[in-house]
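Chain A, query sequence.
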Amino acid sequence: EVNFAISAGFMEVFKNQVTILADSIEFVKDIDVERAKRALDRARQRLRSKEKEIDIPRALAAMKRAENRIYLYEIEGN
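Chain A, predicted structure.
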């Protein structure tokens, strides 16, 4: 079994074939969890910011990517 962190894409499973189309894919073993935690903090700070120029969808996507990386890293027992 191999786990990946995938963002902004989809996966199709048909019989014994898997097709993945994604903006990014990362082996769980390659996740830099400290970097992911910093990215999560930055995204949360942006979302709490009072600035008008905040790209909310982009900040939410960054937050979800970081949460996904951290979650997968932790369930793998790292």
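The helical segments are 33-48, 56-75. Residues 4-75 form a domain with the Single alpha-helices involved in coiled-coils or other helix-helix interfaces fold (CATH 1.20.5.440).
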